[in-house]
Amino acid sequence: MYIWQQQDWPTFQWDTTSLMPLINEIRILQGRLIGHAAHLSPETNLASQMDVLVQNAIETSAIEGEMLNAASVRSSAARRLGLDNWGVERGTPETEQLVQMLCEAVTTTDTPLNKDCLCRWQQSLFVERPVFMDPHAIIGDLRQDQPGQPMAVVSRQGRKEIIHFIAPPSETLATELAGFLKWFNEDSANLDGLIRAGIAHLWLVTLHPFSDGNGRVTRAVADRALAQDEQTSVRFYSMSAAFMRHRNAYYDALEAAQKGDMDITSWLSWFLETLKQAMERGVSRFMRVLDKSRFWAHFQDLDLADRQKKVLNRLLDAEPDEFTLGINASKYKSIAATSRATATRDLAALVEMGCLEKLPGGGRSTRYKIKLPAAGLNMQKIDMDQLAREIEDSITPEPKGINIDPQ
User: Number of helices and strands (H, E) in the chain?
Assistant: First the structure.
């Protein structure tokens, strides 16, 4: 029996007491995000928003197995935010409509959600009808099941087909969706906003109102619920990216809830924990933005080559789990698209100028990391010839005709 077949569907139940510690932690993180945002310049603020929007678009599609061109998404996001000078590649019709849908989800929060809006969002995901799509699939309206073919979520293990979930029949869908929309727009006003977002996600994806695109539309609705809770359309974290990092657990949590009873505490706990992780990464991203601003304010007068700036920005923009062991000369060579000799000279110069520092170890394992400025610029003299020899030793020979990009 699926959750929608329970006699008391959709009267969800949950244990608020067990969820409160998570909710309190999330509220603290929300405050930190708002506080950090106040320290950003308008330009940096917009750039941060664009990064999250790009991440959201790419990851919500990746969850469904669709890989988007990052440059195209970035171009569409930049144009949507009024940053037309970011990048030369124009977005595709697909990325333009996806970005528009994601922005609309969090910027029109005062407008009640309705069926026409959801259908328009679903239609925006399919600029052209995919060649692999079922010929009976409907774009831009609610699904219509074929006789004897209920809407099902399935996967395959070899030749075996595994049914993970069967959605409510299409004959009841209009009534079911109307009930959800009434709850979302009216009946849920007194709920904690974080719990409301988790319920909205589970409820709508369980209805599975469309032939395709249900996951992306559902995540957009959850983003709207979170934007309404925060009373801002400015996004500094991506739930879709958090879902993608735990994609298998995401599907498992949904399947367990959809096959369970009306007590959805476990689902809400998983949703809130994932939201917490998304916000923690948002706070971490803010700190990187602030560190980057401080770094370039300190080193703005240095005469650096474009390739050196490119590598430094790559290190400054890296996620916490990237470059945990620093950067070696081979990686520098790959990022900067330069020669081994130039990589050697560049790293030596960046260490001398105080932009990088050498990590413990040496020889072929020599690695370097960003050196964030303190009170003043450290121009301590070092033996440049010795440093260059150490960097040279850290580069392993590359076989001709093979492009190696070691970490």
Answer: 15, 4
**pTM for this predicted structure:** 0.81
Helix (H) or strand (E) holding 105: helix 93-107
User: What phi, psi does 73 have (nearest 5°)?
Assistant: -65, -45
Beta-carbon neighbour count of residue 133 at 10 Å? 13
Residues 6+ apart with CB under 8 A from 366: 328, 329, 358, 359, 390, 391, 393, 394
> Tell me, what amino acid is at 38?
A
Question: Above 50 in pLDDT, residue 399?
Answer: no
Q: Could you give the CA distance from residue 328 to residue 406 in angstroms, rounded to a whole number?
A: 9
Q: Return d(Cα 30, Cα 99) in angstroms, integer.
A: 24
DSSP element (H, E) containing 270: helix 265-299
pLDDT digits (tens, 9 = 90+) for 173-226: 999 999 999 999 999 999 999 999 999 999 999 999 999 999 999 999 999 999
Collapsing DSSP to helix, strand or coil, 113 comes out as coil
CB of 326 within 8 A of CB of 366?
no
Computed on alpha carbons and rounded to an integer, the radius of gyration of the chain in Å comes to 25
More confident residue, 221 or 390: 221
Q: How far apart are CA 270 and CA 278, in angstroms?
A: 12
d(CA 75, CA 72) in angstroms, rounded, equals 5
The answer to whether the beta carbons of residues 19 and 269 sit under 8 Å apart is: yes
The torsion angle over the Cα atoms of residues 78, 82, 87 and 93, rounded to 10 degrees, is 60
Run of H or E residues at 160: strand 160-166
Contact 210, 122 (CB under 8 A): yes
The answer to whether the CB of 32 falls within 8 A of the CB of 283 is: yes
Long-range contact set of residues 187-196: C-beta below 8 Å, sequence gap at least 24: 192/16, 192/23, 193/225, 193/226, 193/228, 193/229, 193/230, 194/23, 194/26, 194/226, 194/229, 194/272, 194/275, 195/14, 195/16, 195/19, 195/23, 195/268, 196/225, 196/229
Side chain identity at residue 381, one-letter code: K
Percent of the chain residues past pLDDT 70, beyond the cut: 89
Q: How far is CA 253 from the centre of its chain?
A: 19
- Euclidean distance between CA atoms 9 and 368, whole angstroms: 57
Phi and psi of 240, rounded to 5°?
Answer: -60, -40
